Amino acid sequence: MNSHQQANRFTQKELQVIMSGGTRLENANPLIFQRSGDRLLTATDEDEDAADPIDDREIFDLIRSINDPEHPLSLEELNVVEQMRVNVNDEESTVSVEFTPTIPHCSMATLIGLSLKVKLLRSLPDRFKIDVHITPGTHASEDAVNKQLADKERVAAALENSQLLEVVNQCLSTRTM
Predict the structure, then answer these.
(1) pTM for the complete prediction?
(2) Going from the N-terminus, what domains does the chain have, and what CATH number goes with each?
(3) Minimal CB count within 10 Å: which of 43, 96, 108, 150?
(4) Contact at 8 Å (CB) between 106 and 113?
């Protein structure tokens, strides 16, 4: 492995922080928010021949049920993701998602961002450029986390780690709401 490849991988310390969920609760008593209602489908939504551009609500529906790594709640229930912080430009093939950690020093922020990014990468056509970042001013290490999430090589390297991928998949697993 050359020095450039090493620089783009998460360090062992970063991986330990990302995967340390469950050892102690950083936010033992988070605020819980009411889930938004399910999207009502129209006849046009059901029409296989109609053009169906991807919109903010569709992206929100993909990410709202992602499990929080620390609590048995969804990211929506913790207000980590909100529809108003999702922006889609279907014509330009861009998706931008801002997420808000529950506390400013949340050590799970990178894992949450990685889970959001993986869910979108797995769900959207390859034509989309996906940007996942922390809501400005809501996390002490916002710049560092955003830099990691924006680095394609670093994200790819993180997902080659079987332990980390297992943790991400747990966040993405379906649970009854």
Answers:
(1) 0.77
(2) 10-18+51-172 (3.30.300.130)
(3) 43
(4) no
Give dist(CA 160, CA 79) in Å, integer.
29
* pLDDT tens track for 45-82: 666 666 678 999 999 999 999 999 999 999 999 999 99
Per-residue pLDDT tens over the stretch 8-45: 455 555 555 555 544 556 766 666 656 676 666 666 66
Amino acid identity of residue 14, one-letter, is: E
- The DSSP code sequence of 95-127 is EEEEE--SSTT-TTHHHHHHHHHHHHHHHS-TT
- Structure tokens of 170? 């747990």
> For residue 172, is pLDDT > 70?
yes
- Which pair of structure tokens corresponds to residue 55? 């919109």
CA 109, CA 17: separation in Å to the nearest integer?
Answer: 10
C-alpha 51/C-alpha 168 separation (Å) is: 32
Q: Quote the tokens at residue 115.
A: 């889970």
Report how far residue 143's alpha carbon sits from residue 91's, in angstroms, rounded to the nearest whole number.
Answer: 29
CA angle 88, 51, 128 (to 5 degrees): 35
DSSP 84: G
Q: Is the pLDDT of residue 111 over 70?
A: yes
